[in-house]
């Protein structure tokens, strides 16, 4: 089954629009999760919604509340929350560019692959990729997904582009608050040389496949051993089977020049400038 795009739309740089598709660059690891089981019956433990002093409550009686002070809540229904959602837009506009080394690692959250949506978009896509590489910059913008806006960056990666979801400023704590009590003195020169020698000795190319979560590996081994062992009991839940309640990128050079204000003819004649917006044509 083909991967499902996280987002589809237009990547815009001034008057140039490039149809792209965005796909997750990561996937969930091999973490093992456990269910809680009532051993005498073999049934899974379920959790009920309860209110103190009231007991179990119906789902229809539950509303969302924002705590404004201890024990005091402003109630919001789903329609009110839905009304302030950001309208989904199919355009990601690059509104600013910063040096590729200016974004602190604390802001990086999740990476995505950005690919051209069709053959017609490839030329503009390559120009943007190489322009970012040549200028050693990263593009910034905001991506509208599922009613919220994500702060994102765009940078070249091999033949393609990588989009990274960034944290907003109020989501990042200042390092100074944690490091201010650490002495500012320099390291002992002799110890520094020894540490540097050790680092050089252990320096090698980055090879992430050499690292594994040994705890997860051990859990897998333990589970396999218990499945195969004679006398081990595998509990069956008797209720387990029950149903649960734009046109082509025409004249890219002209569009780029027009974005920079080099096309003076149109300005003099008072004609509106065209926005280049290629239509999407799926690859065969």
List the helices and strands and how they pair.
Blueprint (H helix, E strand, L loop, with lengths): L6 E7 L2 E9 L12 E2 L4 E2 L5 E2 L3 E2 L7 E6 L2 E5 L1 H6 L7 E3 L2 E4 L8 E9 L5 H14 L1 E9 L2 E10 L2 E7 L9 H4 L9 H13 L12 H15 L23 H8 L4 H6 L15
Parallel strand pairs: 1-9
Antiparallel strand pairs: 1-2, 2-11, 3-4, 5-6, 7-8, 10-12, 11-14, 12-13, 13-14
Overview of the molecule:
- This protein is 23% helix and 27% strand.
- The chain is an alpha+beta fold.
- It contains 7 helices and 14 strands.
- An 8-stranded mixed β-sheet has the order 9-1-2-11-14-13-12-10. It has a two-stranded antiparallel ribbon with strand order 3-4. Strands 5-6 form a two-stranded antiparallel ribbon.
- It starts with 6 loop residues before the first strand and ends in a 15-residue tail after the last helix.
- A hairpin with a 2-residue loop joins strand 13 and strand 14.
Q: Quick gist of this model?
A:
By secondary structure, the protein is α+β, with helices and mostly antiparallel strands.
Features:
8-stranded mixed β-sheet, 27% strand, 23% helix, alpha+beta, 14 strands, single chain, 7 helices, disordered C terminus, 284 residues
């Amino acid at each position: 089954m083909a991967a499902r795009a996280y987002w589809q739309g237009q990547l815009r740089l001034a008057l140039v629009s490039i149809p792209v598709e965005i796909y997750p660059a990561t996937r969930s690891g091999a973490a093992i999760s456990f269910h809680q089981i009532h051993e005498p019956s073999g049934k899974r433990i379920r959790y009920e919604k309860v209110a103190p002093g009231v007991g179990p409550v119906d789902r229809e009686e539950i509303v969302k509340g924002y705590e404004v002070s201890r024990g005091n809540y402003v109630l919001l229904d789903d329609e009110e929350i839905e009304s302030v959602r950001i309208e989904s837009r199919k355009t990601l506009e690059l509104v600013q560019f910063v040096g590729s080394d200016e974004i602190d690692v604390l802001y990086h959250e999740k990476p995505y692959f950005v690919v051209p949506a069709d053959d017609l978009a490839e030329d503009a896509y390559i120009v943007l990729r190489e322009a970012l590489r040549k200028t050693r910059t990263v593009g910034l913008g905001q991506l509208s997904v599922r009613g919220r806006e994500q702060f994102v960056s765009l940078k070249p990666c091999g033949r393609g582009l990588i989009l990274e979801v960034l944290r907003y400023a109020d989501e990042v704590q200042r390092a100074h608050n944690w490091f201010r009590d650490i002495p500012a003195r320099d390291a002992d020169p002799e110890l520094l040389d020894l540490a540097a020698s050790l680092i050089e000795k252990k320096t090698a190319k980055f090879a992430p496949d050499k690292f594994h979560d040994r705890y997860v590996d051990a859990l897998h081994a333990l589970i396999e051993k218990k499945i195969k062992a004679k006398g081990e009991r595998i509990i069956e839940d008797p209720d387990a089977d029950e149903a649960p309640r734009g046109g082509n990128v025409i004249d890219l050079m002209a569009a780029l020049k027009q974005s920079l204000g080099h096309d003076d003819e149109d300005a003099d004649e008072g004609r509106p400038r065209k926005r280049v917006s290629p239509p999407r044509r799926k690859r065969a």
